[in-house]
Structure formats: C-alpha cells, structure tokens
Amino acid sequence: MNSPTPGLTKAPQSVDELELLLSEPDAAVIQTLAALDGDIVFLGVGGKMGPTMARMARRALDEAGSNRRVIGVSRFASGDLRQRLERWGIETQSCDLLDEAAVAKLPAAPLVVSMSGFKFGATQNPSYSWAMNCYAPGIICQKYRDSRIVAFSTGNVYGPVPITLVDGLPNRGSRETDPLVADGEYAMTVIGRERMYEHFSRTLNIPLVLLRLNYATELRYGVLVDIAQQIAAGQPVDVSMSRVNVIWLADANRMSLCALAHATSPPRVINLAGDEILSLRDVALQLGERMKLRVTFGGQEGTRALLNDGRDGYRLLGQPQVNAQQMIAWTADWVDRGGESLGKPTHFQTTDGKF
Q1: pLDDT under 50 in the chain at which residues?
Q2: What is the biggest distance separating any 2 CA atoms in the chain, rounded to whole angstroms?
Q3: pTM of the model
Q4: ω into residue 266 within 30 of 0, thus cis?
Q5: Does 219 fall in a domain?
C-alpha cells in the first residue's frame, strides 16, 4: 500500500469536519460545473452519497460566483436531512420517483445526477427492486429528456472475477468493456436499470454517463468501517470476499460531478473505483494494530471477488486523491473514538449475489 496521502494526515474529529471534507470541491469540479449551463438536480439525494455530493456542487458553484440552483430530491420520510440541505443552500423537493405525476412536476434542470435505486432487501422484496431499478429510470428519462444525466450503477453487474490471472498476476478487476453477469436478482435489476437508461439515451438522444461504483467509503459507512466495527466488537472478520477496492467518498463525489462533462448518447460507461486492490486480511490486521485490538478471522478466503478496474475513469475524471492507507488510519481513529455510524452495513462479504 502507498504512504499516507500528502497534506491529508489529520483525521476529522467531528461530523461537521467530516462533512466539510467530503464536500470540498477541487479545481476540476469548480471548472467543470462553471463550464456547464443551468441548474443541477440530485435525484435520490437522501442516500449515503447524495448529501455531500449536492453540497460539493453548491460549494463549487459558489466558488465560481454562480447562483445557479442546486436541488435535492428525495422522499425525506424521516430525520433532519431536508433541513440540513437547506442550511447548505440546497433547495429540496419531496418526491416518490415511482410516482409519474409527481416526477413530472419536479423542476426542470439541464444537469441531473440520478442516485435512485434499491439494493438491500432486494431478495425479500424483488418486485420493488425491479420497479425502482428498472421502471424509475424510464420515468426519470421521460422527465429529463432535455438534460445531461449521470446515473449510478454498480460493479455488481460484472459478477466476481478471479483475484489472480492465469499468469499469477493480481487481477485489476473488471473493465468497462467486459461482459455483464447477473449474479443474483439484485444484479439482474441493475443490468435492467442500465438497459433502460441506454434505451432512452439512444431513442431520446439524452447525453448520459453510467457510473459503475465499487464501494465508496467514509468514516460513518463503508467496507473499512464494517471491518473496524467487527474488530471493536470482538467479532471475527469474514474473509470470504478476500479482496476489495474502495474509494474515498469525496473522490467519488468529485469524479461523479466531473462526469457530467462526459455524457454522450449512447451512454458512456465509467468504472468508479479505488486504484488499490486490498486484501481483507491485511486491512483487518492494520486496523487491529492501530486500534490495539486482537483480530480474529472467519470464513475461507475465496479465489474470486467483486473488483472494478477504474483506470479508464481516472483518465477522464482525475486520480483518486485519498489512498487506502489514509482511509485505514482515519477509520481506525474514528471507530476507536466511538465516532458516529450510519448503521448501514455494506454486506460486502456477500458471495452469492443475494442482498
């Protein structure tokens, strides 16, 4: 693993500090959004990435001296997220994205980031999974047929790959040109989501980017947090999914916003993933050492894993700025201090495609 990221050695000490860090735009984001026209709508802003990405867009436009609107759309069924977004200068709209009439009344905007989808619970509620992942994209594309859209997909569409190649070299992961493999019903529905976006991009000439994301992480959520919490609780770390690549959430936010400039019809597909293939066992041992806790393991290390090769994306969207060593150090510090958790496990250990 690489040495800690230069200039980023102090762990965030509070949620406010963390959210400022996760929403800080770099020059590329500011320049990208300044060069594009119009307001920005974030659909599904209430998810794990949405709040800080929308705030990053707002901060970037403010840096550029622009008063263009940033609008966050979610059901906002509970919690104080709506109030927090509005404090950050983000307008909010409450909407069920499966309600065609409600979506039709949303504000028009030339720039759209769609993060809507349904994963955890897909096995127990498959019909809702198909509706959210396949039907909602059609509704969105009909509404925003005159917009430029970045839509989120997942690395699950590739299925697991061997962790080593036939010549013994480590596998860098699936490439954008690799065939899609539906490993379980969730992956089926996300392939369906991609096909719906592709269909409407082609037929309505909508410029669109599909982002196949593999494991964004921050200090309240993510693969590293899951492992650190297991260690802190004295639980064995499951190494069945023996390799993983993760990307710091702020990097994923920056790259996602920059992707707006690369939308095409038919859609451009971009992997969004960290540039290091991590051994779960090694990560757990490093976290345990930093937290001064004993680490135990469970499961048998598999020979296949869900891995994305993000190098083509780096050429378009820039290199990730925070490396694995920095993420591990910050996560150990945060969990060890009892920092806030979103309470949403990633279930990265899942090897049968059932979520």
Answers
A1: 1-7, 355
A2: 57
A3: 0.93
A4: yes
A5: yes
CA-to-CA separations, 183 to 145, 157, 305, in angstroms, rounded: 31, 8, 12
Which residues in 165-302 belong to E strands, given as ranges?
Answer: 208-213, 216-217, 237-238, 243-244, 247-248, 268-272, 278-279, 297-298
pLDDT tens by residue, 112-165? 999 987 655 556 678 988 999 999 999 999 999 999 999 999 998 998 999 987
Pair 351, 241: CB distance under 8 Å = yes
Please give the residue range of the domain that contains residue 266.
15-336
List beta partners, residue 28: none
| Residue 114, helix vs strand vs coil | strand
| CATH assignment at residue 311 | 3.40.50.720
Query: What is each CA distance from 251 to 37, 273, 326, in whole angstroms?
Result: 23, 9, 13
User: Is 22 domain-assigned?
Assistant: yes
How many structural domains are present in the chain? 1
Angle at 301 between CA 299 and CA 302, to 5 degrees: 115
Contacts with 237 (C-beta within 8 Å, 6 or more apart), sequence order = 227, 230, 231, 280, 281, 284, 295, 296, 297, 298
What is the per-residue pLDDT across 7-51, written as a single tens digit (0 to 9) for each?
455 788 999 999 999 999 999 999 999 999 999 999 999 989 999
Phi-psi region of 344 (alpha: psi -120 to 50; beta: other; left: phi over 0): beta
